Amino acid sequence: MSSDFLQYQDGTNHVKYWVSYIRTLVDVQTLQQTIMPFLKSDQWKTLEELKKGIPIENIILTIDTDVIKEKLLEGYIVVCLSEYGLPCALVKATINKARDVSLPEVEFSVVGPKEAFVESIESNINLIRKRVTSDKLRIFEMKVGDLSNTKLAILYVEDICDEQNVHTVIQRIKDIQFDQISDSSFISQMISDNHNSPFPQLLDTERPDRVSSILAEGKIGIIVDGSPHVLIGPTTLVEFFSAFDDYFYNWLSASFFRLIRLFAVAFSILVTPVYVAALTYHYELIPSDLLNTLISSRRDVPLPPILEALFLELTIELLREAGARLPTKVGQTIGIVGGIVIGTASVEAGLTSNILLIIVALSALASFTTPIYAMGNTIRMLRFPFLLFAQWFGLLGIVICFSFLTAHLLRLTSLGRPFLEPIYPPRTIDMKDALIRLPFSLMSKRPQQLRTNKPKRFSSENAKKNKDIDE
């Protein structure tokens, strides 16, 4: 018997009862001020009178021992009229300890709402409910994890979302065989289409405004109790490079920033491999003036370009990990001071060239432009295969590695939907909010890949009569 499980007998002159509860899950104030005064009074003799008399909504009368065990572990108080007799009254007195709604930490924005999800599933549903006030919003609750019994909620808009997507999500979650589910990232890995892909196939966000927006598009949200991140699916590759801030700016500015992010990702992956390939195999392609600069910078470097690049890339990764694992103030100091000291010392010691140091620093800086942290980790990993292929085959190796990457993305799906859409299969209609963001007046249709029940969001004819505010 657990030491925090309490069971005792009490009673008035006319009725005896047994009370059982787990002390660490029960709100003591609710127990002492609301429940116990009524139990000690002469106002009840049966459990039906008890249910009517206690001013608490969630009172259940049951004889099912499985239900009793389940509710006992959720913070309910069990009241019986005999020590082992049934039925019992289950009175909710759950203690709710959760942090307050705070600012987004990962997806912070200068403009727009400043609320982020917390670890409480009820609070997170409330944040979405107040933004999506439609009676068509459906919430399907489940429990996963044989040991943890983690509560999970699937959200979608009934008359918009494709039922096949909903059934796919529900079935995959039901098929999960695992004892402990601690975070939404567990669910993301277990219901993904390809478990061996480095690319995240469900988008996770901490912003309620983003979730409410994707629900209106016909997508599905998955909330896991204890996690401050909500999963979104099905998703596409281009969505991972679209910050929700894009919808708060003029469409020209938003499109420009989105293209900057896409260029930064390509630059982060390819610039160091191109440097290694050019200096190892294709130095004749380098302009003579630039070649002289490269030769002078590498004059005292004893390492070949590949080892020089790997040394700096691994140093950057070590600094990132150290900054992420240490306390905030110490981590910032390590990242700044460590980068300056190690970079300067490695150049002065002749281990690396100053040009490659600049290239690697710009590559690391470009990788930080990815709005979704999980995709940022994938971009960090991709540089190393490209580096190795560049060392083996030069520019041809980069092309071969890019071909493998493209083939993998073409085969990848998210909840059965193409991950590379609208690039492949090509869908011109969905390009309006992919590589660039067009004005709201042109976004009259929902994404084709979702196969929504209502493809049209609004009448495009009426939108043309009144120009959009950002045109």
UniProtKB/TrEMBL annotation:
GO CC annotations, alphabetized: plasma membrane
InterPro entries: Spore_Ger (IPR004995), UPF0353/GerABKA_families (IPR050768)
Cited Pfam families: GerA
Localization in the cell: Cell membrane; Membrane
Segments crossing the lipid bilayer: 259-281, 355-374, 386-410
Membrane topology: Multi-pass membrane protein
Region (Disordered): 446-471
Compositionally biased region (Basic and acidic residues): 458-471
One GO term of the biological process aspect: spore germination
Keywords: Membrane, Transmembrane, Transmembrane helix
Similarity remark: Belongs to the GerABKA family.
Protein name: Spore gernimation protein GerA
